[in-house]
Design a protein that fits this description.
By secondary structure, the protein is α+β, with helices and mostly antiparallel strands. The chain has helices at 38-47, 53-57, 84-95, 125-131, 201-208; strands at residues 50-52, 62-69, 72-79, 102-107, 112-119, 153-156, 169-172, 193-199, 212-213, 228-229, 234-240, 243-245.
Amino acid sequence: MGPDGTTSVVGTFGAGGGRRASGGEWRYTGGMKHVLGGMALFALVGCVGTRSASQAGAEGRLEIVEMRTSKGTIVLELDRERAPVTVANFLKYADRGAYDGTIFHRVVENFVIQGGGYTAELVERAKIDQAAGNPDVAIVNEWRNGLKNERGTIGMAREAQADTATREFYINVQDNPRLDTPRAQTGDAGYAVFGRVVRGMEVVDAIRKVATAPRPTAGVTDGSLNNVPTEAIVILSVKRGGTVGVGSSSSGR
């Protein structure tokens, strides 16, 4: 099931069989002070501009991840301090290449783009991994960590029950406060956010606008494949590292 508990979500936002969304709702149905002096200015320029993944990580709570897609590159900043379990889980899948070759299988223009669970042939990667002796393990839902489902944030897809997220994720293309709201239909819990886009929001916006269509698939009856891009949007790789401009914003506003 999905966030609204009715039978039509951005999917049961789920990681293994059905997450759906209807319309744009989750229904399961500064200026820097001038520095005077040539040497001072030179030193400042050397420090400002971009920071590496190691520099961001040195802050103790951030992990920079570069997601390459067939539409372009999205750089994510993951918050290990506020969502330690969720970030560790996402990185586990990324480090073993489990996201490589998957697609954004659910795209709802005024809601979210969701991916990480299906191949371009609409085969669930979880089933492939389980057959290889590496089954998914659900994680605790860290939805009360203070991070909100705002435009440009990344969160975990799941079933209606609270602690069912495994591998699938979504990126909010607009503010979605409903996903922060606990309801009986969503296991009396919200959906856990664990990071944000810090570069490449234009790529997210390009993905949100692609043409989609239902893709009836054997064994999938909950509508989770009702908004599949007609041209596959492939996640080529997800790797730690990359650089991010200081002061970058995910909002695109």
